[in-house]
Predict the structure.
Amino acid sequence: MKKQKKEITQITKDMTIKDILEMDETLAEVLLGFGMHCIYCPMSQMETLEEAAEVHGIDVDFLVKKLNANKAFK
């Protein structure tokens, strides 16, 4: 029996930067707008959104709202 991939409809703070960009690469513009200029660096790809927000001094809940409002897979 083949496992079905769970469809993700919301971005959460525990998702990695890599997962977010794989879901919708246009969200890179939102992340860059928040000053996250290292989103394509190999190490940052494995960070959760919450970890990246903390490093950059960004309110993760606000960032999650902005990302969900701008995602292409609404």
The helical segments are 17-23, 28-33, 49-56, 60-70. Residues 17-70 form one domain. The first helix runs from residue 17 to 23.
